[in-house]
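REQUEST ID: PR-0412
SUBMITTED BY: lab tech R.K.
PRIORITY: routine
TASK: structure prediction, single protein chain
INPUT:
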Amino acid sequence: MGIPTVIDRVVQQAIAQWLTPLYEREFSKRSYCFRPNRNTHQAVLQAEQYLHEGKTWVIELDLENFFDKVNHDRLMSKLSNRVTDMRTLK
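STATUS: complete
OUTPUT:
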């Protein structure tokens, strides 16, 4: 992925602010990355809670190259199920 221009960042942020309320409730309550009102400190506290409950595994994922491999046709198909504004999809 390249470094986005200022205009790209503004557009990305605007779209993220619009899409977040549409999709946030569907995300796992156990994920913390790039989520509103969630942070690393909360993730650590939750991991500690799981350990105190007797769970023995905590998994941390680093999706460094994930976005390079996203199937954009599939992504756009999923988005178009809820987003009908063609300008936004473009």
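NOTES: The CA atoms of residues 21 and 89 lie 17 Å apart.
REVIEWED BY: pending
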